[in-house]
Specification:
Layout (H helix, E strand, L loop, with lengths): L10 E7 L5 H10 L7 E7 L4 H12 L4 E4 L4 H12 L3 E6 L3 E2 L3 H9 L4 E12 L3 E3 L19 E4 H6 L12 H9 L5 E14 L4 H5 L3 H11 L1 H6 L1 H25 L14 H14 L30
Parallel strand pairs: 1-2, 1-4, 2-3, 6-9
Antiparallel strand pairs: 4-8, 5-9, 6-7, 6-8
């Protein structure tokens, strides 16, 4: 640990970093600028080797920010190490290339106090290659089966994180936050999402979110295998949700073919590959890739898309 360890308090923010240069300093500044009083901040560096990134970390230490350094072990290991080292009752997990709005902790803390709430995140404001607001819905266990329903930036109780076993440190290719949500929700409760864009989510063509799309089916299959009872109990709901997503996308494809380059891009969806697709399209447009039509002017929020009907109960084995 570089610099003094953080004092024990109610809320702490773990900022994970790995060769992210000055973006980590922006993440830390956003955590230190919270309206909620007494928020502790800890950076966990997951084996950075880039000289510019190391210089940023040294500058943070000189400014009084504790930095825990570890050999590269993945973001799950970094998050777990940070939560243990902070010792605060409540923990916010923040990736080193993202930023919090000043009222994130206060707004999330209020919702975490509601009955049955086990974790709280918020809508996202995309920055970088892509732009826009993404509105993940949150929900209970069944809402997290067909797609991930909440961002990785989250406030939760440290005790709940420990009881769920922490982030699985064997998951280094993506979906580690989705896996944690399924374990947190296995015995009930829900994840709330503040309906405001209180997290700036950095988008780039080489981001982990985009890279995970190359192995999405493999990673999703592994997630199903890790939580067979949950998927079996809500199989009908999962299948209908997947079909609803397919229907929405077919309708969008028809609109693009019918209306041509002027077709509205529509809502950027979360947890089903929609954000990664939006980043790839934005990068292609910026590069002038043939066939990547410019984005149409934004439209009013869309009407509610098709959704799956309620479960008919567990499906027999």
């Amino acid at each position: 640990m570089s610099a003094a360890p953080p004092a024990t308090g109610e809320v702490g923010v773990v900022v994970t970093s790995h060769d992210q240069g000055g973006l980590v300093a922006e993440a830390v500044a956003s955590a230190r600028a919270q309206d909620h009083p007494g928020v502790q901040v800890l950076v966990v560096d997951d084996g950075s080797t880039d000289p510019a990134s190391l210089a940023v970390l040294d500058a943070l230490v000189a400014d009084g920010v504790p930095v825990l350094r570890q050999a590269n072990a993945g973001v799950s290991a970094a998050r777990n190490a940070g939560a243990r080292a902070l010792g605060t009752e409540l923990v916010v997990l923040l990736d080193g290339d993202d930023r919090l709005a000043p009222r994130f902790v206060a707004a999330a803390r209020e919702r975490l106090g509601r009955p049955g709430v086990v974790a709280v995140s918020s809508w996202l404001r995309l920055v970088g290659v892509a732009s826009g607001v993404v509105r993940p819905p949150g929900g209970a266990l069944r809402d997290f089966l067909a797609r991930n329903a909440a961002p990785a930036t989250v406030l939760l109780r440290r005790g709940d994180l420990e009881r769920a076993g922490g982030y699985d440190e064997t998951l280094r290719e993506g979906f580690e936050d989705w896996d944690l949500y399924l374990r947190l929700l296995a015995h009930g409760g829900r994840v709330e999402v503040v309906p405001e864009p209180l997290v700036d989510y950095r988008t780039a063509p080489a981001s982990s979110n985009v890279r995970s799309m190359e192995r999405r089916l493999e990673l999703y299959g592994a997630l199903v295998d890790r939580h067979p009872e949950a998927f079996a109990a809500h199989l009908r709901h999962v299948l209908l949700e997947q079909e609803a997503t397919s229907t929405r996308r077919l309708l969008r494809w028809e609109a693009v073919v019918r209306d041509g380059p002027g077709a509205d891009d529509g809502e950027i969806t979360f947890g089903d590959g929609g954000m990664a697709a939006a980043v790839r399209l934005a990068a292609a447009r910026a590069a002038g890739t043939p066939g990547a039509a410019p984005a149409a002017p934004p439209t009013a929020p869309p009407t509610a898309p098709p959704t799956a009907p309620p479960d008919a109960g567990p499906v027999p084995a």
